[in-house]
Amino acid sequence: MTSPLRTSSIGLLTGGDPPPVGLHNGEASSPFLIICDHAGNAVPAALAGLGLPQSELDRHIGVDIGILGVSKGLSDHLQAPLIFQRYSRLVAECNRRLDSPSFMTPISDGTLVPANQDPAADDRQARIREIVEPYHAEISGRIDHRLAAGLPLILVSMHSFTPSLRAAPAPRPWHIGLCYHHNRHFSDLVLDELAHQRDLVIGRNEPYGVNMAEDYSVPVHGEERRLPYVEFEIRQDLIADASGQAAWAERLAPVLSAAHARLAMESGR
């Protein structure tokens, strides 16, 4: 089955489609740079909803439920720039390398994605060129600018996870998980601060870790640049509404600030 993408001389996105890159507090000067790969579930009009009903796009397979609200709140508390992706991970998975099987996944948690069964090469390239590349270019550009100016930078990657998968129905008890690979020092500082909050069940590389072979954002923008980073996964039932999102932003902001203070003290900055 081929993709329903309608190619044209003006490309995939048209005037009625939102731009892929969202910014919040874009002029803020905090050392934190917050990114949110799965903030939205938009689909370009030319892709006809990927052949899915809206109810599927609204599931965790289409968007990291609740995480944009948390990210915006955290951005406000820290006065840190937030970069977020508006298009669904089912259109193009911005946190996967281009050769990953799940970059344009044909099936997600038991749901067949009709437009991703056998996409034509130009369909795939249009999604990369117009959705994925502008998002990562914005992140790279901001990192380059701060580093060139000799300014400190800590990458904060925001995600959420479903309490249970349809394909593997088992409870996931963690309230929050941290994902890290070799460059884990800042994550360890954050874990130390979170440990003071006795009501939390904290996952360490649970329910996910960092897959250096397939993941993109933390491996490329964090690990490969040797930047301090933390990647959060928050359980979606805790942030499904505005009050939960606000509460988690308020919870994480002082944790990040305290971890940053310790890191700055270590480095003498």
What would your notes on this structure say?
By secondary structure, the chain is α/β, with parallel strands linked by helices. It has one domain: Zn-dependent exopeptidases (Aminopeptidase, 3-Layer(aba) Sandwich), CATH 3.40.630.40. 32% of the residues lie in helices and 14% in strands. It is built from six helices and nine strands; from the N terminus they run E-E-H-H-E-E-E-H-E-E-H-E-H-E-H. The N terminus is likely disordered.
Quick description:
The protein is an alpha/beta fold.
Key features of this structure:
seven-stranded mixed β-sheet, 14% strand, alpha/beta, Aminopeptidase, two-stranded antiparallel sheet, globular, disordered N terminus, 9 strands, 6 helices, 269 residues
Per DSSP, the total helix count is 6
Number of domains: 1
SSE order? EEHHEEEHEEHEHEH
Structural class: alpha/beta
Question: What is the multimeric organization of the chains shown?
Answer: single chain
Helical fraction equals 25-40%
Shape: globular
| Rg over CA atoms | 18 Å
Return residue spans where pLDDT drops below 50 for at least 5 consecutive residues: 1-9
- Provide the β-strand percentage band: 5-15%
Q: Which CATH architecture? A: 3-Layer(aba) Sandwich
Mean pLDDT: 94
Keywords: Hydrolase
Organism: Labrys okinawensis
GO molecular function: hydrolase activity
Protein name: N-formylglutamate amidohydrolase
